[in-house]
Predict the structure.
Amino acid sequence: MIVAENLVKEFRLTERKPGLVGSLSTLFTREHRIVRAVDGVSFTIPAGSKTAYIGANGAGKSTTIKMLTGIMTPTGGRCLVRGIEPYRHRQANARSIGVVFGQRSQLWWDLSVPDSFRILRRIYDVPDPVYRRNLALYRDLLDIDALGTTPVRQLSLGQRMRAEIAASLLHDPAVVFWDEPTIGLDMVLKDAVRHLVNHVHRELGTTVVLTSHDIADIAAICDSALVVDRGRVVHQGSIRDLLRTAERRSVVFDHRGGPDPGHACARIEQELPGVSASPAEDGRIKVDYPVDRFTSRQVLAFLLERFDLADCYAPEPDLEDVLRRIYAGGSRSPLAAGVAGPGQGGAA
Amino acid sequence: MSGVDVPEREGTPRPSPAARVRHYLPFATGGLQSLLRYRSTFVTTGVTAAAGAAVTVFLWRAVYAGSPPGGGPGGFTPEGITTYLLMAQVLQVLHANRVDDEVAAEVYRGDVAVMLVRPVSYPVVRFFACLPVVAANAVLVGVPVLALFALIVPLTVPRPVDVALFLVSTALSVLLAFLVNLLTGMTGFVTTNTWGVRMVKQSVVAFFAGQLVPLALMPGPLAAVASALPFRGMVDGPLTLLLGRYDGVAGAADVLARQIGWAAGLTLLGAVLWRASLSRLEVLGG
């Protein structure tokens, strides 16, 4: 289980002067600007869950991950990973976690992937059967053998990310923190990575904490979501609950006979105030309704009464739309959402 | 913040020293594998070291050319001063462990974060990773340079006991060089201009270690300053033992004791500064 209690991280950014003299002068006189990247975040991530840690750029995701992995010490509050404070007991914590930083390589730059794995195996004391089982898994799912003996620095981004992901799971960690793990992967490999993490989760009950800007990653891997905005938690719960916060949902239907799609849309919009209807592909019609005024049942009842329905379904709300609204909340300006600092959550 | 690195979770037994070494050895073997991909580095280092040795050796041989049979300035014979300067060059090659460059670069780029997600101590990792560099420099650069000069200039033949003492002292000097370079690299936490700091360190070490000028030839006050600094144990210490320029067992013990004392002191300083740096580490971006 992972717990954060009122977690705060402030950065003191030194205003540096240029040049050697300037750099040395910062040893004696310093001017600072304080930036609060994580602003009193509290959450609980149950063991064995697969949680998406979601937020706009600069929302404090990576900073929180760095505190949970023991790299950085919080300015205030605390966090616990499996009962220990990672930054106080960094090495003990490190034994039970696996980490991918999409932006940074943790492989040996001048060595091949198999050589890096051999080193990791020794560092983490991976037992032989586990090591062999995991290599077989990576061979099957990630085609890891294709990377051969090429040094890591000569691998493409996609090849390297495959190795990074495998490396993070090599020692069967109880918790994995993946920060942007699918950068540079094509669709087939993204699928493979999602399949791998779901497989590992099923077999070992691994707790997964994922940050990604790829909504498809989140949808394919995670069962719960933690949404942060400007350093604060604005939503915590299952992905399903998150989707329920959508302001608008839709129903798509196909009908026989009756009015042509253009007329049908006009009629629906006229009779259901606040609803918008538009022709969708294959002659279907998509009805968007505000959830605070109608239930899907009411919309369906209306449609059944007016049209001879051939097909009808209510798709899940679009996660991307939900998140876009959360990110844009508060200030309404998408650019302002990228600035770390105190601010109130914008979830409606 | 206290206890960033060492304390283990309660209930988890601390690993035995053997187990700890086992966790760090892969960094040494991995480092060796990386090194072997860059063989040309050693040629460059070798040529640089040989050229540096040639300049100082021939310069100082000219200075000592007319010295009386009992020894010239500082009590060195021409062979003695030649041996001193040549071995000083070899020691410098052993001290070129790249730790300052690598630590500074990793701190500056934030790659130190990646090292911190592993269940190992970063300074200890750096120590093990520099061992193959030191060994390769010794075998591929130090020995050939020494052999080359042994053929062309007369050298002092040391007593076996002095060679033994020298080897022990050299091992300590390698440790001192590691610690000095680690501390130099860690300035990356407070300044982005680690290049400047490294340049300053290089000059200070070369001078106060007695690599350019033996401490015995320095004017009194300067020699006193040099004696009080840790750098003395990097060149002057081992060569004092090699050339038998010490006073009995007590004299030899004094040289080694100073080296051990400084190694302990710098280890402590490094550990304290490392923890302080970690607790306020700020890795932005990525």
